[in-house]
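Batch 3, record 17
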Amino acid sequence: MSAVVKIAFRNLRRNARRSFMTMSAIAVGAAAMLCFGQFIAETILEFQTGVVRQNGHISIFHAGYFDFGAGNPAAYGISDYPSVIRLIGNDPVLKPLIRVATPTISMFGIAGNYGVDASTTFSGNGYVPADLRKMGSWDRYGLFRGWPPIPIGITDSDESVGVIGVGIARILGECAALHVANCPTPPRVADVSPAIGAAPPDFAELAKRDMTSVAPVHHGAPRLDLLTATSQGAPNVASFFVIGAESQGIRAIDDSYVRMHFNLARRLLYGRNSTEATAIVLQLNSTADLALAQERLQFLLKSRHLNLETRDFTQLNPFYAQGEQFLGAIFIFIASIMAVIVLFTVVNTTSMAVLERTNEIGTARAIGVQRSTIRWQFALEGSLLGGIGATAGLVMAQLIGLFLNALHISIAMPGSSQPSRLILLTSSTAAPLMIGVWLVLVVVAIMAAWVPANQAARMPIVDALRHV
Amino acid sequence: MAKEAGRDVVRFLNVVKTYEEGAVNVTALNGVTLAVRRGIFSMIVGPSGSGKTTLLNLIGCIDRPTTGTVEVCGQAVAGMSDRAITDFRAHKIGFVFQGFNLHPVLSAYENVEYPLLLLGLNARERRKRTIAMLEAVGLYDHRKHRPNQLSGGQKQRVAIARALVKEPELVLADEPTANLDSRTGASIVELMRRIQREHSASFVFSTHDPHLMSHAEETFMIRDGQLVDHRVENGA
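Prediction for the assembled complex:
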């Protein structure tokens, strides 16, 4: 066997230029697969990080909320969320897995800016500021190391302030006050209501009551009036002071998004002293623990006969799963093209080697070399081409990764409100991808060499010896 | 070398070999019956295209007859599997080719050692035999040279060493002097003859050069695929 290896190495050196060109093609293929694969992997991880920062890993809902709760969030609330959070926090299995357990409230209603006589439907989300801040610092993959904390736009000190999407700011004519760039000013409407500049009397009365009870003074922050239906079906209005407008990455969300303090949301939906929430969001330390945490959680809820159900972030964000599948499919497509190029390159190289060495093959067979040894001789040469080329590709990809990482390129991911940094070859996915690409290319090279190698092995000896 | 004195090393019985060349069947050997005695220097002589190489290919078990019986080293080769016949060649038959056919990426030493690797001999035994054979052909000092660093005569001597190093029962040389000048060719024949005598090996040597016939102990004349004459030297 050592002679076969020795001959294989020497044959590669014998046709150094051809071997170099073949290995270069494999190296470029490997580097392309790795860089693209890493880009995809990092994109998915960045995407996951964004989703987990915003929505956690697991959400617990009242049974049926996921299917019907959007139509009636008040009726599908979790009635005593503090006790559920305590139950989870005291569980010996879940406790070490969970980073944040926080109540949230989602609701729909009408947001009005009666200063410009405009109103629109809104989708409101209430968070506990400290918990949201902690969730926003989740960076399991180290992709945002060194980045400043993401501003959450809600504070512990003032429950009446929050942020809205740039779309809702545009619709309600608050772009200028919120310093939203590239935001058109609404045209003057000809048929102006005589009551412009003032809220309808009943709303105004409700809002006034709300302001006098909770809202401190806000220095120039635009005020919106949020109208919702309480769990009892009565209208409820709260004054909401907008301290910022954020792009949510998707226009439909931008046009309705409102982020507010949990207490304000609770007051709007359930009343001031309620202990209800529409969901409890759990953020885990690691996504790898998701299945374990979910299984344990379901066991815990079932054993306590709690009429609650869980959903993980992939279920709550179908865009994430779709994006992951789409990017994975693109990677497979690109990798397949690279593999085919490598396949044909190695087939060509090995076929030429077989043609040139036909006489050697005949001689070897005549003096007693078995067909299988001839076959392995060429397959080994193919695997060496693949192995050396793929290894060079790994090195090349590392250098490209280091170079690109040093450039600190920012890119905007689809559907994301935060900019992302183009980072390659840093995450935990890099090593498996490298091993995978290396193995695939070596296997492809062996397969490519196998066909001409088999032809060489089956060649009639006398024909091979006659070959000039 | 294992010898069974008194028996033939090669026996052909009414051997026919035809080739298909396009739509035409070409008969290379036509009913050849012969017996090559063990331990002597035999020569197959005939003009180009007479069927010498086909005859040697059949003796060397690298080709199979269309009809007839071929027996080499006491073994009827018909019906042997490719693996078995390859193994048979590795152990029993040494080849010397007209074009030397040395492995270009191996040194002289490695070329000579190569057949011993196929026999699975240990490193010490391989080294002992390889050095002895390189010394026998006078190329020990050139043992590290690659074929492209050797002259034609040196290459053929390496090829002879490669054929003999495994101590085969039969050595086949297909026009081994054809690519050499007459002086070098003569020295190669002398070398083969000497080694054959020293080892009492069975040599079958093909040539179209009648001048070399004087070296043979037994001569088979072949023409148009048929054996036309058979001579045995006195004392052989």
